[in-house]
Design goal:
mainly beta; five-stranded antiparallel β-sheet; three-stranded antiparallel β-sheet; 8 strands
Amino acid sequence: MNSDSDLQIAGDILEVPHLLQPPREHPATVAEFAGLARSLAADRSQWEHLVAYDATSRWYHRLRTGPGYEVWLLSWVPGQGSGPHDHGRSSGVLTVLDGVLTERTERGTRVLAAGSQRVFAPGYVHDVANDALEPAVSLHIYYPGLTEMPMHTPRCESRTAPGPVTA
């Protein structure tokens, strides 16, 4: 019986640079876009100084662009919401940076606290609102970049729908 492990026989893959995948400059998978959002969320110095609040409408700022994608920063004062909408042909990642947002879909209601993340495909219909008493900030990544946001007719659901679904 041979006592050598496969690693000892093959050597350490980290010692053979040509076998490693080069790190990508820009995300290309759902997991990489979600990772980019988490990375930006963790580094407040990249976004905190840009946040502004507008009592008349949601405030937004395009934080970054890359090949085929956009990163947006949004602020929400209490009572502001998006209305039911989808994102056309874009997929996306929504990450709550500060505060609490509520997401309503045909499947139910989710309360999203800071650090919560939602990933969605084209055609995903949701309504996002700040139902809390404090302002909120969120980060949105769209791939491909957002070119349309079709609005949908609200369902007969009140803003105080019973029993939130927790994620």
